[in-house]
Amino acid sequence: MEQYKAILIDPGPGKADAVLLSGNGKNPVLSGHNWKNPDIKIVVDDKEARPDGKRIGPLAGIYTGLKEAENKNCLVIAADMPFISYRVLRLLTQTSEKTGKDAVLIRNLRGIEALCGIYSKEYIEKIKSCIKNGIYKIIEILGGSEVEWIDSRKLEEEKIDSYNFFNINTREDIIKFDNIRKDGIPELVKDPGGLTGGSRDRWETFFYRGMESFV
What we know:
Layout: E1 4-12, E2 15-23, E3 40-44, H1 58-68, E4 73-78, H2 86-99, E5 103-108, E6 111-120, H3 124-132, H4 138-141, E7 147-151, H5 152-157, H6 171-183, H7 199-207
Parallel strand pairs: 2-3, 5-7
Antiparallel strand pairs: 1-2, 1-4, 4-6, 5-6
C-alpha cells in the first residue's frame, strides 16, 4: 500500500475534468483498466520530493500532484479511504468556494485529516522549501491564516460519519473493510441480510449515504 499516495481531483468549472493518481512507483495502477470520463493521469513522485532518494510520506504525493494540476485548487483524497461520501466532498468544496482560503482541512477527534482536504497551488513553493529543509510533516507546513478548519461540530451538523475517514493500513483494516463492503455501515443498514445489488449499486449506497436523493 505504500505505492499509493493520494488522488487529486483537479476541478474545472462545475466538474472534475482531471483526476491525478499520485504514487511512488512507476506504475501505481496494477490493473490494465482503461480509465475514462474523467481521464486519470498517473503521476510519480517528483524528483524534488525524493531528497537523497528517500521517501518522505504523503507530502511527496501532494507536492507532485499540485505541480501537475492545471487548476489552482485540488481536492486531495488518500487512495486508501474507501468510504468517502458525497457529503464530506460537498462540504469541502463549498467551504473552499465560500472562504477562498488556500487550504480547507478537517480537524476531528482523530486529529488532522491531511489527506482529505483541498489544497491550493499556492503551497507549491512553500512545500518545496520545507522539503529542502527536511520538514516533511504536513501540519508544520500549513500556515494559520490561509487554512480553513472544519471541526467535529461542523461534521456532526452535516451528518458526516467517522467512516469517511476510515483508512486501510493493516491486515485487520482489510478485514474490516471487507466486512463493511459486504454488510454495509451498521448504523445505516436496516436489512440484516446486508446490501443488495451490483458493485456500482453498493458503492453508490456508500457514497450517497444520508442523502434523500442523489444530487
